[in-house]
């Protein structure tokens, strides 16, 4: 953890401080959140343009289902980033059902539970995932 934080700390600007804060939050959450075969971890990765969600079994190190705004079914769709995040959540819920997954542990990846993260989580819940 220290090496990663030091790597992000090299920049002296506001963006570097935000990156360090986000990394700290993510490390703090990951100490306690782990996915199992019965209840895998739903991790959300957000960038300025795209959002990715994966359902991971941490014990085996396998990705069980994933969805992203880079998927061909979502890539060309209309709507703002929050609407696209909702579509990613719905698609992930469908893929999770197909894989036989109904309960997950939510890992927001150091992001605040608002905006695109909340839209993705809400759509995944509506699609049948429990967390």
TrEMBL record:
InterPro entries: Ribosomal_L18, Ribosomal_uL18_bac-type, Ribosomal_uL18_bac/plant/anim. SUPFAM superfamilies: Translational machinery components. One of its GO terms (biological process) is translation. Keywords: Ribonucleoprotein, Ribosomal protein, RNA-binding, rRNA-binding. GO terms for cellular component: cytosolic large ribosomal subunit. One of its GO terms (molecular function) is 5S rRNA binding. CDD domains: Ribosomal_L18_L5e (cd00432). Belongs to the universal ribosomal protein uL18 family. Part of the 50S ribosomal subunit; part of the 5S rRNA/L5/L18/L25 subcomplex. Contacts the 5S and 23S rRNAs. This is one of the proteins that bind and probably mediate the attachment of the 5S RNA into the large ribosomal subunit, where it forms part of the central protuberance. This is Large ribosomal subunit protein uL18. The lineage of its organism: Bacteria, Bacillati, Actinomycetota, Actinomycetes, Micromonosporales.
């Amino acid at each position: 953890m220290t090496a990663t934080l030091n790597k992000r700390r090299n920049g002296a600007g506001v963006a570097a401080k935000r990156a360090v804060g986000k990394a700290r939050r993510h490390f703090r959450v990951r100490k306690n959140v782990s996915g199992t075969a019965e209840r895998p971890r739903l991790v959300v990765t957000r960038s300025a343009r795209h959002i990715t969600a994966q359902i991971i079994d941490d014990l085996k190190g396998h990705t069980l289902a994933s969805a992203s705004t880079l998927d061909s079914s979502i890539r060309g769709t209309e709507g703002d980033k929050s609407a696209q995040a909702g579509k990613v959540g719905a698609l992930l819920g469908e893929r999770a059902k197909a894989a036989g997954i109904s309960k997950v542990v939510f890992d927001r990846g150091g992001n605040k539970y608002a905006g695109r993260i909340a839209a993705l989580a809400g759509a995944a819940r509506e699609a049948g995932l429990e967390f």
